[in-house]
């Protein structure tokens, strides 16, 4: 079985962003694409360019809503709460709606 490190995954995601056309900009500015590592199993990683779990994810419903759909019981390794509990306690007032596409056409 192939095993990769979080750093390998990070390098791969940056490669993908560049291939898609992401340009280097100041922090918090709009970008063409942004791929983040939310979790890497239950590992906690703190480095210069990489922090896992993603430190801002607990404040963003656009991350928590779909995450709660696919892994509601996963326990955040720092906050020791399930994803569904993080969503329930989120102060984010942003709405996240499911986009349903009619695939029968």
Protein topology:
Blueprint (H helix, E strand, L loop, with lengths): L5 H15 L24 E2 L4 E2 L8 H10 L12 H6 L17
Antiparallel strand pairs: 1-2
What proportion strand? under 5%
The helicity comes to 25-40%
Structural class: mainly alpha
Average pLDDT number: 91
Number of helices: 3
What spatial form do the alpha-carbon principal axes imply? globular
Main sheet makeup = 2 strands, antiparallel
Gap between N and C termini, in Å? Answer: 39 Å
Order of neighbouring strands in the sheet with most strands: 1-2
Structure explained in plain terms:
This protein is globular. The longest helix has 15 residues, at 6-20. Helix content is 30%, strand content 4%. By secondary structure, it is mostly helical. It has three helices and two strands, in the order H-E-E-H-H. It has a two-stranded antiparallel sheet with strand order 1-2. It has a domain at 56-105. A hairpin with a 4-residue loop joins strand 1 and strand 2 (51-52).
Please supply descriptive tags for the structure shown above.
single chain; 105 residues; mainly alpha; two-stranded antiparallel sheet; globular
Summarize this structure briefly.
With 105 residues, the chain is mainly α. The chain has three helices and two strands.
């Amino acid at each position: 079985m192939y095993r990769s490190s979080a750093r390998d995954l990070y390098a791969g995601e940056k490669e993908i962003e560049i291939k898609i056309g992401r340009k280097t900009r100041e922090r918090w500015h709009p970008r063409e694409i942004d791929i983040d590592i939310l979790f890497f199993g239950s590992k906690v990683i703190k480095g210069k360019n990489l922090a896992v779990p993603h430190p801002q994810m607990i404040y963003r419903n656009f991350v928590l809503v779909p995450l709660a759909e696919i892994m509601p019981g996963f326990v955040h390794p720092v906050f020791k709460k399930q994803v569904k509990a993080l969503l329930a306690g989120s102060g984010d007032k942003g709405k996240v709606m499911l986009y349903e596409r009619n695939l029968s056409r």
